[in-house]
Amino acid sequence: MADLNLQEIHDFLIEVAKKAGEMITTAKPSTTTSGEKKNSADLVTETDQAVEKMVSTTLKEKYPSFSFMGEETYKPGDKLTSNPTFIVDPIDGTTNFVHGYPYVSISLGLAVDLIPTVGVVYNPFTTTLYSAIRGGGAFLNRTTPLPLREPEAMKDLSTTVVCVEWGSERTGNDYKVKSETFSKLCARKEEGGAMVHGLRSFGSAALNLCGVASGALDVYWEAGCWPWDVCAGWVVLTEAGGIVVDGNPE
């Protein structure tokens, strides 16, 4: 990684994100023209595909030796390797995009040796930019350090706002676990719950991670994410001082 110019890559990803943002904000999607992938809650639009094509072409021209993984071109069996890899979600929040709800982002990440290393998350509707380089801090709109406010000491979940997402899988074990977890987070302590201040579900994993990084959210709990959902936001969150743990944290 020593020979990679991470600042140059970071700056170039911001340029690409802004270009993608123009494509997204000028598009006119609708629920009747959108396609489906796994089911009716898993939407894809022509804009998703066009943005990913532009991003992949642009990045491959600039960095031909890097690998690429994108949501719209991923095929079952594709594996991440230690090679520098751009991990991209062209529109994180497609359902929001289709319905005109402006909680939408372009998520552009770079993993090196399987470690999230550079992250750019851009909401083109609000022109809000989150970015970070591993070891270099995280920033809002390139100049404002994250978090925006210092988090208070968390004695337990009862003092928190927790972000969650239902996702598009509405059956099976993951759906069951999510339903049970959401209920337990909200339930009274006397009934074995956490009694959190509230649950929030916004529809963009990348922006949710950045919400925790900024201090607007306390926790983001998720199950069933893909690399393109979290790579860029992971860098922003950890560089802002947050932590990411799996289901069995040490």
UniProtKB/TrEMBL annotation:
GO terms for molecular function, please?
Answer: inositol monophosphate 1-phosphatase activity; metal ion binding
Its Enzyme Commission number? 3.1.3.25
Protein's pathway: Polyol metabolism; myo-inositol biosynthesis; myo-inositol from D-glucose 6-phosphate: step 2/2
Q: Hydrolase among the record's keywords?
A: yes
Q: Which reaction does it catalyse?
A: a myo-inositol phosphate + H2O = myo-inositol + phosphate
Q: Where are the transmembrane segments?
A: none
Which EC main class describes this enzyme?
A: hydrolase
Say if the entry is tagged with keyword Translocase: no
Query: Which keywords are on file for this protein?
Result: Hydrolase, Magnesium, Metal-binding
Family, similarity comment: Belongs to the inositol monophosphatase superfamily.
Question: What InterPro entries does this protein map onto?
Answer: IMPase, Inositol_monoP_metal-BS, Inositol_monophosphatase-like, Inositol_monophosphatase_CS
| Cofactor(s) annotated in UniProt | Mg(2+)
Which protein are we looking at? Inositol-1-monophosphatase
Q: Which CDD domains match?
A: IMPase (cd01639)
What GO terms describe the biological role, i.e. biological process, of this protein? inositol biosynthetic process; phosphatidylinositol phosphate biosynthetic process; signal transduction
